[in-house]
Amino acid sequence: MNTTITYEFPLNERIRVFIRLEQLFLQFSHFLTGDTVNDKRAAISVLLDIMTIFRRNDLKSEILKELDRHANVLNKIAHNQSVDTQKLEELLSTLNQTSKNLYATNGKIGTLVMESDLFQSIAQRSSIPGGTCSFDLPEFHYWLEQDEATRLKDLEHWSSPFNDIRIAIDLILNFIRHCSAPTHEIAEAGFFQFSLDAHQPHQLHQLLKVSLDKSIHCFAEISGGKHRCTIRFMVPSTDNKRPTQSPDDIPFYLTRCLF
Question: Domain of life, per the record (predicted)?
Answer without folding.
Answer: Bacteria
